[in-house]
Amino acid sequence: MNTILDQITSATAVQAIVFATNSARALPEIPAVARIHLGYLASARKPLRITPYRDLPRPGVVVGDQVATDGLLACRLGYTFLHYCPSLPHIPRGPRLMRHLGRPIHAVCSARHEPHCQLGKSFNIMRSELRKR
């Protein structure tokens, strides 16, 4: 993980990276990285709770696999959302249900064209990039 974080911080203007999960699991340790705020938030209650993210620098990006949690969190924060859509043939019921729930949420956000919410635009960018490969 340190190698990836070192590459990100040396090649970009990234100021903060926060790993947030709705699960209760905790990391054994969080690596220290020079010149960057690095955090981990378990039991994050995304997208309902946004207080832990309010002091993060702007503009920002949320990368996540669920539109219903990560995408709505990005909208609430005014951040761009990049949707990670791995091909998972044996996805458990819970995440599969959340993925299906995200489809109408994406459609509503895209149709409303809210200027502070980049959910629809970013989702489409990710889909088109995946098709090119």
Largest sheet: 2 strands, parallel
- Run of helices and strands: HEEEHEHH
- Tally of domains: 2
Low-confidence stretches: 121-133
Derived from helix and strand composition plus strand pairing, the structural class reads alpha/beta
Number of helices, where a helix is a run of at least 4 consecutive DSSP H or I residues? 4
Instruction: Using the CA coordinates, give the radius of gyration.
Output: 15 Å
The main sheet orders its strands as 1-2
Please sum up the structure shown:
With 133 residues, the protein is α/β, with parallel strands linked by helices.
Characteristic key phrases:
disordered C terminus; 133 residues; two-stranded parallel sheet; 2 domains; single chain
